[in-house]
Amino acid sequence: MPAYQSEVLADAPIAYWRLSELTGNAVDASGHGHTGVVSSGGVTRGQAGALADGNPAMLFDGTTGRIVGDVLSAPGLPAITIEGWINHLGAAWGGSWEMVVCADSTSGQGTFLGVNNGHLALAVFRTSYFVLIASGTMPTSGWHHVAGTWSAVDQRTRLYVDGALTDTSAPQGPGTAIKTGAPVALASYSDPTNLFHGQLDEIAVYDTTLSGARLAAHYAARTFVPNYQPAVIGPAA
Asked: What is the pTM of this model?
C-alpha cells in the first residue's frame, strides 16, 4: 500500500476519495461505501496527482464540475477533520468561496473546507456559522496539502497548510460539526455554487480531530510532489 494511503487509513477516516478513477464514480477508499457521483461534464480525469505513488487526480473546471455523495454522518458529530490536496494551476483565486469539501452541505447550513478570497477557511455551523479564515494567502501554483479541524472539547477551529498549523480560533462555544446530515459535496457547495477551479486529490473526512502531528505525518508521506512549491502562510494565530 502506498505510504500516504497507509497514513490516512491509520487514522480511520469516515470517507476517503483518492480521485484516481478514469471512468465511473469516485470510490470511497475508507471502506465505508460513500461513493461520489462525478458530474457528467466539467471534470477531467487522469491528471498528474500530488503524490509519488503515481495515483491520478481530477481537474474541476469551476463551472459545472463537482462530485456529490451521500450522507457522511447523522447530526451531532462532536469533532471533524477535513483534508486534501489542491492545485489552483496558477490561476487567480476567485473573490468568494471555492469549495474543496462540504461535509454537510444543506444550503445555509453546513461544515465545509475551502478557499475564501484566496485564504484557506473552515466553516462549522453551530447555532450559526463560525468561519476561521487563514491570515495568509494560499499560493495559486503547485500542489498543497490543506486541512481544517474542529472539536467540541476545546471548541477551537484549526487550519493547516503543508503539514503546519497556520491559524487557531478562540473557543467558540458548544456546537456540532454535522448540523443536518445532508449529503457531502466535493468541489462545490450543494446548490451547486462556489465551485472549485483546479485540481483536487486525496480528499478525506474524519469524525475525530486529528492532531498536528498526524497531519504532519500525512504531509510527510507524500514522498515527492511534482512541481511542489512550499507554501509560506505565516505564523499560527
From this structure: 0.91
